[in-house]
TrEMBL record:
It comes from Marine Group III euryarchaeote CG-Epi1. The chain crosses the membrane at residues 26-47, 59-79, 115-136, 142-164, 171-190, 210-229, 282-300, 312-333, 354-375, 381-401, 413-439, 445-465. Coiled coil: none annotated. Keywords: Membrane, Transmembrane, Transmembrane helix. This is Uncharacterized protein.
Protein backbone atom coordinates (compact mmCIF):
# COMPACT_ATOMS: atom_id res chain seq x y z
CA UNK A 1 0.00 0.00 0.00
CA UNK A 2 2.81 2.43 0.86
CA UNK A 3 4.47 1.76 -2.48
CA UNK A 4 1.21 2.38 -4.32
CA UNK A 5 0.66 5.69 -2.51
CA UNK A 6 4.21 6.80 -3.34
CA UNK A 7 3.70 5.98 -7.03
CA UNK A 8 0.40 7.85 -7.08
CA UNK A 9 2.00 10.85 -5.34
CA UNK A 10 4.73 10.96 -7.97
CA UNK A 11 2.13 10.82 -10.72
CA UNK A 12 0.22 13.57 -8.98
CA UNK A 13 3.35 15.74 -8.78
CA UNK A 14 4.03 15.35 -12.49
CA UNK A 15 0.42 16.04 -13.46
CA UNK A 16 0.24 19.16 -11.31
CA UNK A 17 3.45 20.58 -12.77
CA UNK A 18 2.58 19.75 -16.37
CA UNK A 19 -0.88 21.27 -15.92
CA UNK A 20 0.60 24.58 -14.75
CA UNK A 21 3.63 24.59 -17.05
CA UNK A 22 3.77 23.08 -20.51
CA UNK A 23 4.61 19.39 -20.57
CA UNK A 24 7.43 19.97 -23.03
CA UNK A 25 8.93 22.71 -20.91
CA UNK A 26 8.59 20.73 -17.70
CA UNK A 27 10.30 17.62 -19.04
CA UNK A 28 13.00 19.75 -20.65
CA UNK A 29 14.03 21.18 -17.28
CA UNK A 30 16.22 18.14 -16.37
CA UNK A 31 18.15 18.82 -19.59
CA UNK A 32 19.09 22.25 -18.24
CA UNK A 33 20.21 20.61 -15.01
CA UNK A 34 22.28 18.09 -16.98
CA UNK A 35 23.99 20.91 -18.87
CA UNK A 36 24.67 22.69 -15.57
CA UNK A 37 26.31 19.56 -14.18
CA UNK A 38 28.45 19.26 -17.31
CA UNK A 39 29.56 22.89 -17.14
CA UNK A 40 30.38 22.68 -13.42
CA UNK A 41 32.75 19.78 -14.05
CA UNK A 42 34.34 21.31 -17.15
CA UNK A 43 35.17 24.52 -15.25
CA UNK A 44 35.97 22.85 -11.95
CA UNK A 45 39.73 23.18 -12.47
CA UNK A 46 39.41 26.96 -12.79
CA UNK A 47 37.29 27.17 -9.64
CA UNK A 48 39.67 24.96 -7.68
CA UNK A 49 42.62 27.06 -8.78
CA UNK A 50 40.91 30.24 -7.59
CA UNK A 51 39.31 28.98 -4.40
CA UNK A 52 41.37 26.00 -3.33
CA UNK A 53 40.37 22.35 -3.39
CA UNK A 54 38.86 22.10 0.10
CA UNK A 55 36.98 25.39 -0.12
CA UNK A 56 35.51 24.47 -3.49
CA UNK A 57 34.21 21.17 -2.15
CA UNK A 58 32.77 22.98 0.86
CA UNK A 59 30.82 25.42 -1.27
CA UNK A 60 29.41 22.53 -3.31
CA UNK A 61 28.16 20.90 -0.12
CA UNK A 62 26.72 24.17 1.13
CA UNK A 63 24.94 24.60 -2.21
CA UNK A 64 23.53 21.08 -1.93
CA UNK A 65 22.19 21.83 1.55
CA UNK A 66 20.58 25.07 0.41
CA UNK A 67 19.07 23.35 -2.60
CA UNK A 68 17.59 20.75 -0.27
CA UNK A 69 16.12 23.59 1.80
CA UNK A 70 14.64 25.11 -1.34
CA UNK A 71 13.25 21.80 -2.58
CA UNK A 72 11.57 21.21 0.76
CA UNK A 73 10.26 24.75 1.17
CA UNK A 74 6.74 23.77 0.15
CA UNK A 75 6.56 21.86 3.42
CA UNK A 76 6.38 25.23 5.19
CA UNK A 77 2.94 25.80 3.73
CA UNK A 78 1.56 22.41 4.77
CA UNK A 79 -2.19 22.10 4.84
CA UNK A 80 -2.56 25.87 4.60
CA UNK A 81 -0.94 25.85 1.16
CA UNK A 82 -3.12 22.96 0.01
CA UNK A 83 -6.32 24.58 1.22
CA UNK A 84 -5.61 27.84 -0.54
CA UNK A 85 -4.11 26.64 -3.80
CA UNK A 86 -4.80 22.97 -4.44
CA UNK A 87 -7.65 22.13 -2.09
CA UNK A 88 -10.15 21.71 -4.93
CA UNK A 89 -7.95 19.02 -6.49
CA UNK A 90 -8.20 16.74 -3.44
CA UNK A 91 -4.50 15.92 -3.21
CA UNK A 92 -3.33 12.61 -1.79
CA UNK A 93 -1.78 14.41 1.16
CA UNK A 94 -5.31 15.14 2.38
CA UNK A 95 -6.37 11.47 2.44
CA UNK A 96 -6.12 11.28 6.22
CA UNK A 97 -9.26 13.43 6.55
CA UNK A 98 -11.44 10.89 4.70
CA UNK A 99 -9.53 7.58 4.67
CA UNK A 100 -8.23 5.23 7.41
CA UNK A 101 -4.65 6.47 7.22
CA UNK A 102 -2.91 8.68 9.78
CA UNK A 103 -1.72 12.19 9.01
CA UNK A 104 1.69 11.18 10.31
CA UNK A 105 2.02 8.34 7.84
CA UNK A 106 0.72 10.24 4.82
CA UNK A 107 3.04 13.18 5.61
CA UNK A 108 6.04 10.86 5.89
CA UNK A 109 5.16 9.33 2.52
CA UNK A 110 4.82 12.82 1.08
CA UNK A 111 8.31 13.64 2.39
CA UNK A 112 9.67 10.47 0.77
CA UNK A 113 7.96 11.45 -2.46
CA UNK A 114 9.70 14.85 -2.38
CA UNK A 115 13.10 13.19 -2.04
CA UNK A 116 12.39 10.72 -4.85
CA UNK A 117 10.99 13.41 -7.15
CA UNK A 118 13.87 15.85 -6.77
CA UNK A 119 16.38 13.03 -6.96
CA UNK A 120 15.02 11.91 -10.32
CA UNK A 121 14.19 15.39 -11.57
CA UNK A 122 17.39 17.27 -10.67
CA UNK A 123 20.03 15.33 -8.74
CA UNK A 124 20.30 12.42 -11.18
CA UNK A 125 20.43 14.64 -14.31
CA UNK A 126 23.13 16.75 -12.62
CA UNK A 127 25.12 13.57 -11.92
CA UNK A 128 24.75 12.43 -15.54
CA UNK A 129 26.00 15.82 -16.72
CA UNK A 130 28.96 15.59 -14.34
CA UNK A 131 29.78 12.10 -15.64
CA UNK A 132 29.79 13.43 -19.19
CA UNK A 133 32.10 16.20 -18.01
CA UNK A 134 34.70 13.69 -16.85
CA UNK A 135 35.39 12.84 -20.51
CA UNK A 136 36.71 16.39 -20.99
CA UNK A 137 38.71 16.61 -17.75
CA UNK A 138 41.15 14.55 -15.73
CA UNK A 139 38.64 13.94 -12.93
CA UNK A 140 38.36 10.30 -11.90
CA UNK A 141 34.90 8.82 -12.49
CA UNK A 142 35.14 6.75 -9.30
CA UNK A 143 36.01 9.79 -7.18
CA UNK A 144 33.18 11.73 -8.82
CA UNK A 145 30.65 9.03 -7.94
CA UNK A 146 31.88 8.84 -4.35
CA UNK A 147 31.76 12.61 -3.99
CA UNK A 148 28.26 12.66 -5.50
CA UNK A 149 27.11 10.36 -2.71
CA UNK A 150 28.42 12.81 -0.13
CA UNK A 151 26.64 15.66 -1.94
CA UNK A 152 23.43 13.67 -1.94
CA UNK A 153 23.66 13.22 1.82
CA UNK A 154 23.98 17.00 2.15
CA UNK A 155 20.93 17.47 -0.09
CA UNK A 156 18.95 15.06 2.10
CA UNK A 157 20.09 17.03 5.14
CA UNK A 158 18.67 20.23 3.65
CA UNK A 159 15.32 18.78 2.65
CA UNK A 160 15.05 16.97 5.99
CA UNK A 161 15.64 20.24 7.80
CA UNK A 162 12.75 21.78 5.85
CA UNK A 163 10.57 18.86 6.88
CA UNK A 164 11.75 19.23 10.47
CA UNK A 165 10.93 22.95 10.52
CA UNK A 166 7.55 22.47 8.85
CA UNK A 167 6.41 20.04 11.53
CA UNK A 168 7.03 22.66 14.21
CA UNK A 169 5.68 25.47 12.02
CA UNK A 170 2.26 23.81 12.09
CA UNK A 171 2.34 24.02 15.89
CA UNK A 172 3.59 27.56 16.52
CA UNK A 173 6.12 30.10 15.28
CA UNK A 174 7.83 30.14 18.69
CA UNK A 175 8.51 26.40 18.59
CA UNK A 176 9.74 26.76 15.01
CA UNK A 177 12.36 29.37 15.92
CA UNK A 178 13.45 27.47 19.05
CA UNK A 179 13.73 24.14 17.19
CA UNK A 180 15.70 25.71 14.34
CA UNK A 181 18.15 27.40 16.71
CA UNK A 182 18.50 24.23 18.77
CA UNK A 183 19.45 22.17 15.70
CA UNK A 184 21.87 24.81 14.38
CA UNK A 185 23.64 25.00 17.75
CA UNK A 186 23.88 21.21 18.02
CA UNK A 187 25.09 20.88 14.43
CA UNK A 188 27.73 23.58 14.94
CA UNK A 189 28.93 21.92 18.14
CA UNK A 190 29.25 18.51 16.47
CA UNK A 191 31.11 19.68 13.36
CA UNK A 192 32.98 22.59 14.91
CA UNK A 193 36.41 21.00 14.40
CA UNK A 194 35.53 19.21 11.17
CA UNK A 195 34.38 20.05 7.65
CA UNK A 196 31.01 21.61 6.95
CA UNK A 197 29.37 18.17 6.72
CA UNK A 198 30.30 14.76 8.06
CA UNK A 199 30.22 13.18 4.61
CA UNK A 200 32.68 15.75 3.25
CA UNK A 201 35.03 15.15 6.18
CA UNK A 202 34.90 11.43 5.42
CA UNK A 203 35.63 12.09 1.75
CA UNK A 204 38.65 14.27 2.54
CA UNK A 205 40.06 12.48 5.59
CA UNK A 206 38.59 8.96 5.48
CA UNK A 207 37.00 8.96 8.94
CA UNK A 208 34.12 6.50 8.60
CA UNK A 209 32.56 7.64 11.87
CA UNK A 210 31.86 11.08 10.43
CA UNK A 211 30.17 9.52 7.40
CA UNK A 212 27.86 7.66 9.77
CA UNK A 213 27.18 10.85 11.72
CA UNK A 214 26.49 12.70 8.47
CA UNK A 215 23.95 10.04 7.46
CA UNK A 216 22.32 10.06 10.90
CA UNK A 217 21.60 13.80 10.73
CA UNK A 218 18.88 13.68 7.99
CA UNK A 219 17.47 10.47 9.46
CA UNK A 220 17.20 12.08 12.90
CA UNK A 221 15.64 15.26 11.48
CA UNK A 222 13.01 13.39 9.50
CA UNK A 223 12.26 11.08 12.43
CA UNK A 224 11.71 14.00 14.82
CA UNK A 225 9.57 15.74 12.21
CA UNK A 226 7.42 12.66 11.68
CA UNK A 227 6.98 12.12 15.40
CA UNK A 228 5.93 15.76 15.79
CA UNK A 229 3.16 15.59 13.16
CA UNK A 230 -0.26 16.06 14.74
CA UNK A 231 -3.20 13.97 13.61
CA UNK A 232 -5.62 16.90 13.59
CA UNK A 233 -4.85 20.45 12.60
CA UNK A 234 -7.36 22.98 13.85
CA UNK A 235 -7.36 26.24 11.94
CA UNK A 236 -8.03 29.46 13.78
CA UNK A 237 -11.29 31.26 13.13
CA UNK A 238 -11.36 34.35 10.96
CA UNK A 239 -12.92 37.59 12.10
CA UNK A 240 -15.33 37.86 9.19
CA UNK A 241 -17.05 41.03 10.34
CA UNK A 242 -13.76 42.90 10.62
CA UNK A 243 -12.75 41.98 7.10
CA UNK A 244 -16.16 42.98 5.71
CA UNK A 245 -15.87 46.43 7.27
CA UNK A 246 -12.33 46.78 5.99
CA UNK A 247 -13.34 45.92 2.44
CA UNK A 248 -15.50 49.01 2.17
CA UNK A 249 -12.68 51.10 3.58
CA UNK A 250 -10.08 49.70 1.18
CA UNK A 251 -12.44 49.93 -1.78
CA UNK A 252 -12.75 53.67 -1.22
CA UNK A 253 -9.06 54.05 -0.39
CA UNK A 254 -7.91 52.52 -3.70
CA UNK A 255 -10.47 54.22 -5.90
CA UNK A 256 -7.73 56.41 -7.35
CA UNK A 257 -6.09 53.27 -8.81
CA UNK A 258 -9.11 52.38 -10.98
CA UNK A 259 -7.08 52.92 -14.15
CA UNK A 260 -4.64 50.21 -13.07
CA UNK A 261 -7.17 47.65 -11.80
CA UNK A 262 -10.59 47.45 -10.20
CA UNK A 263 -10.52 48.95 -6.68
CA UNK A 264 -12.71 46.11 -5.42
CA UNK A 265 -10.16 43.50 -6.59
CA UNK A 266 -7.30 45.43 -5.02
CA UNK A 267 -9.24 45.69 -1.75
CA UNK A 268 -10.02 41.96 -1.77
CA UNK A 269 -6.40 41.03 -2.47
CA UNK A 270 -5.21 43.40 0.27
CA UNK A 271 -7.55 41.76 2.79
CA UNK A 272 -6.37 38.30 1.73
CA UNK A 273 -2.78 39.43 2.24
CA UNK A 274 -3.58 40.48 5.82
CA UNK A 275 -5.80 37.49 6.57
CA UNK A 276 -3.16 34.97 5.52
CA UNK A 277 -0.36 36.82 7.36
CA UNK A 278 1.64 36.48 4.17
CA UNK A 279 3.61 39.65 4.93
CA UNK A 280 5.36 37.88 7.79
CA UNK A 281 6.17 34.92 5.57
CA UNK A 282 7.53 37.24 2.91
CA UNK A 283 9.82 38.85 5.45
CA UNK A 284 11.27 35.55 6.63
CA UNK A 285 11.58 34.27 3.05
CA UNK A 286 14.02 37.15 2.48
CA UNK A 287 16.19 35.98 5.35
CA UNK A 288 17.17 32.81 3.51
CA UNK A 289 18.71 34.25 0.30
CA UNK A 290 20.22 37.25 2.08
CA UNK A 291 21.76 35.00 4.68
CA UNK A 292 23.21 32.92 1.87
CA UNK A 293 24.64 36.05 0.20
CA UNK A 294 26.20 37.17 3.46
CA UNK A 295 27.78 33.76 3.90
CA UNK A 296 29.04 33.82 0.31
CA UNK A 297 30.65 37.19 0.98
CA UNK A 298 32.47 35.76 3.98
CA UNK A 299 33.40 32.59 2.12
CA UNK A 300 34.82 34.41 -0.90
CA UNK A 301 36.84 36.69 1.35
CA UNK A 302 38.31 33.63 3.03
CA UNK A 303 38.74 31.45 -0.05
CA UNK A 304 39.94 33.80 -2.76
CA UNK A 305 43.33 35.52 -2.88
CA UNK A 306 41.62 38.86 -3.63
CA UNK A 307 39.29 40.95 -1.50
CA UNK A 308 35.68 41.16 -2.67
CA UNK A 309 33.37 43.47 -0.73
CA UNK A 310 29.67 43.27 -1.48
CA UNK A 311 28.45 46.82 -0.82
CA UNK A 312 25.00 48.34 -0.44
CA UNK A 313 24.54 48.80 -4.20
CA UNK A 314 25.23 45.10 -4.77
CA UNK A 315 22.65 44.16 -2.16
CA UNK A 316 20.25 46.57 -3.85
CA UNK A 317 20.61 44.55 -7.06
CA UNK A 318 20.09 41.26 -5.23
CA UNK A 319 17.13 42.44 -3.14
CA UNK A 320 15.51 43.87 -6.26
CA UNK A 321 15.88 40.49 -7.92
CA UNK A 322 14.37 38.75 -4.90
CA UNK A 323 11.25 40.84 -5.50
CA UNK A 324 10.20 37.91 -7.67
CA UNK A 325 9.62 35.98 -4.45
CA UNK A 326 7.28 38.67 -3.15
CA UNK A 327 5.20 38.50 -6.31
CA UNK A 328 5.15 34.70 -6.21
CA UNK A 329 3.94 34.90 -2.59
CA UNK A 330 1.08 37.15 -3.70
CA UNK A 331 0.14 34.38 -6.14
CA UNK A 332 0.15 31.84 -3.30
CA UNK A 333 -2.48 33.45 -1.10
CA UNK A 334 -5.63 31.94 -2.63
CA UNK A 335 -6.69 30.05 -5.71
CA UNK A 336 -7.93 32.48 -8.40
CA UNK A 337 -10.32 29.97 -9.98
CA UNK A 338 -13.46 31.45 -8.43
CA UNK A 339 -12.80 34.59 -10.48
CA UNK A 340 -13.96 32.57 -13.50
CA UNK A 341 -17.58 33.29 -12.53
CA UNK A 342 -17.02 37.06 -12.40
CA UNK A 343 -16.83 39.57 -15.28
CA UNK A 344 -13.11 40.19 -14.89
CA UNK A 345 -9.95 39.21 -16.75
CA UNK A 346 -6.75 37.49 -15.64
CA UNK A 347 -4.92 40.71 -16.46
CA UNK A 348 -7.04 42.57 -13.88
CA UNK A 349 -5.81 40.26 -11.10
CA UNK A 350 -2.20 40.50 -12.30
CA UNK A 351 -2.29 44.29 -12.27
CA UNK A 352 -3.99 44.31 -8.85
CA UNK A 353 -1.20 42.15 -7.40
CA UNK A 354 1.44 44.30 -9.05
CA UNK A 355 -0.21 47.29 -7.39
CA UNK A 356 0.01 45.53 -4.01
CA UNK A 357 3.63 44.63 -4.69
CA UNK A 358 4.47 48.28 -5.28
CA UNK A 359 2.38 49.85 -2.51
CA UNK A 360 2.05 47.28 0.29
CA UNK A 361 5.14 45.04 0.32
CA UNK A 362 7.65 47.86 -0.25
CA UNK A 363 8.61 47.92 3.43
CA UNK A 364 10.13 44.42 3.32
CA UNK A 365 13.04 45.19 0.93
CA UNK A 366 13.35 48.68 2.42
CA UNK A 367 13.91 47.27 5.90
CA UNK A 368 16.59 44.90 4.61
CA UNK A 369 18.34 47.64 2.66
CA UNK A 370 18.40 49.95 5.68
CA UNK A 371 19.74 47.20 7.95
CA UNK A 372 22.43 46.12 5.48
CA UNK A 373 23.52 49.70 4.84
CA UNK A 374 23.76 50.43 8.56
CA UNK A 375 25.66 47.21 9.36
CA UNK A 376 28.07 47.87 6.48
CA UNK A 377 28.60 51.48 7.56
CA UNK A 378 27.59 52.62 4.06
CA UNK A 379 24.67 54.96 4.69
CA UNK A 380 26.12 57.26 2.01
CA UNK A 381 25.40 54.54 -0.58
CA UNK A 382 21.86 53.90 0.67
CA UNK A 383 20.08 56.37 -1.69
CA UNK A 384 21.87 54.88 -4.72
CA UNK A 385 21.19 51.37 -3.46
CA UNK A 386 17.48 52.15 -3.04
CA UNK A 387 17.20 53.50 -6.60
CA UNK A 388 18.93 50.40 -7.96
CA UNK A 389 16.77 48.10 -5.81
CA UNK A 390 13.52 49.75 -6.93
CA UNK A 391 14.52 49.76 -10.60
CA UNK A 392 15.65 46.12 -10.65
CA UNK A 393 12.65 45.03 -8.57
CA UNK A 394 10.10 46.68 -10.86
CA UNK A 395 11.91 45.38 -13.95
CA UNK A 396 12.09 41.77 -12.73
CA UNK A 397 8.58 41.68 -11.30
CA UNK A 398 6.96 43.25 -14.37
CA UNK A 399 8.63 40.69 -16.61
CA UNK A 400 7.70 37.88 -14.23
CA UNK A 401 4.08 39.02 -14.18
CA UNK A 402 3.99 39.39 -17.94
CA UNK A 403 5.57 35.99 -18.64
CA UNK A 404 4.09 33.82 -15.86
CA UNK A 405 0.85 35.57 -14.91
CA UNK A 406 -0.71 34.07 -11.79
CA UNK A 407 1.33 30.85 -11.93
CA UNK A 408 4.81 32.10 -11.11
CA UNK A 409 5.81 29.23 -8.82
CA UNK A 410 5.05 26.49 -11.32
CA UNK A 411 5.69 28.30 -14.62
CA UNK A 412 9.40 28.73 -13.84
CA UNK A 413 9.70 24.92 -13.90
CA UNK A 414 9.03 25.22 -17.62
CA UNK A 415 12.48 25.07 -19.18
CA UNK A 416 11.60 27.51 -21.96
CA UNK A 417 10.08 30.04 -19.57
CA UNK A 418 13.09 29.68 -17.28
CA UNK A 419 15.58 30.24 -20.13
CA UNK A 420 13.79 33.43 -21.16
CA UNK A 421 13.68 34.58 -17.54
CA UNK A 422 17.41 33.87 -17.23
CA UNK A 423 18.29 35.81 -20.38
CA UNK A 424 16.14 38.77 -19.37
CA UNK A 425 17.26 39.02 -15.74
CA UNK A 426 20.87 37.86 -15.49
CA UNK A 427 22.78 40.13 -17.98
CA UNK A 428 21.69 43.47 -16.42
CA UNK A 429 22.27 42.06 -12.93
CA UNK A 430 25.80 41.01 -13.86
CA UNK A 431 26.52 44.46 -15.32
CA UNK A 432 25.19 46.25 -12.24
CA UNK A 433 27.05 43.89 -9.91
CA UNK A 434 30.37 44.60 -11.66
CA UNK A 435 29.70 48.32 -11.50
CA UNK A 436 28.80 48.14 -7.80
CA UNK A 437 32.11 46.45 -6.99
CA UNK A 438 34.00 49.22 -8.80
CA UNK A 439 32.15 52.16 -7.20
CA UNK A 440 35.13 53.16 -5.05
CA UNK A 441 37.54 53.38 -7.99
CA UNK A 442 35.71 55.73 -10.38
CA UNK A 443 32.49 56.82 -8.63
CA UNK A 444 31.38 59.46 -11.13
CA UNK A 445 31.74 57.14 -14.13
CA UNK A 446 30.05 54.28 -12.27
CA UNK A 447 27.10 56.48 -11.28
CA UNK A 448 26.58 57.55 -14.89
CA UNK A 449 26.69 53.93 -16.06
CA UNK A 450 24.26 52.86 -13.32
CA UNK A 451 21.91 55.69 -14.27
CA UNK A 452 21.90 54.61 -17.92
CA UNK A 453 21.17 50.98 -17.00
CA UNK A 454 18.41 52.04 -14.60
CA UNK A 455 16.86 54.17 -17.35
CA UNK A 456 16.93 51.29 -19.84
CA UNK A 457 15.45 48.87 -17.31
CA UNK A 458 12.70 51.36 -16.48
CA UNK A 459 11.80 51.60 -20.18
CA UNK A 460 11.64 47.83 -20.52
CA UNK A 461 9.57 47.65 -17.32
CA UNK A 462 6.97 49.89 -18.96
CA UNK A 463 6.98 47.73 -22.09
CA UNK A 464 6.50 44.55 -20.05
CA UNK A 465 3.67 46.12 -18.07
CA UNK A 466 1.82 47.22 -21.19
CA UNK A 467 2.12 43.73 -22.67
CA UNK A 468 0.25 42.16 -19.75
CA UNK A 469 -3.13 43.02 -21.27
CA UNK A 470 -2.28 41.72 -24.73
CA UNK A 471 -0.98 38.43 -23.35
CA UNK A 472 -3.42 37.64 -20.55
CA UNK A 473 -6.71 39.30 -21.52
CA UNK A 474 -9.01 36.49 -22.64
CA UNK A 475 -7.04 33.77 -20.82
CA UNK A 476 -8.94 31.57 -18.37
CA UNK A 477 -8.28 31.24 -14.64
CA UNK A 478 -8.06 27.43 -14.93
Amino acid sequence: MNRLILIRMLQEEVRLNTSFASGRGFFSFPILVLISGLISIVFSDVMIEDMGYNDYLQILHISAIFYGLFAGSLAFFGNEFLERIFGYFGLILGLSTTQPITQRKITLLYFCKEIIFYTLFTMLPALLGAILGTFYTDISLVNLLIFSITLYISFCTGISFSYYISSFYRVSLGQTIFSAMFFIICYSAIFYKYEITGSLDWYLHGDMRLLVVGMIVPIALSSIATWNIREHNNTSSINIIGYKNRFKEYNQKYYWANKMSMPGIIAKERIDLERSKTGTKMFFSFLFPLGFLTFMNWFLDRGLPIQIDFNTIFYGVMIGFFGTMLYSWLNSIDTPHFYSTLPIQVSDIIRARLFLFGTITWWIPLVFMAIISYMSNELNLLPIGLIVMITVGIYIVNYTAMSTGLKTNSALFDAFVFIKFFLISVPPMIAMTILSLAINHRPSTILVALSIICGVLSLFSLIFYRRIDSKWTGESFD
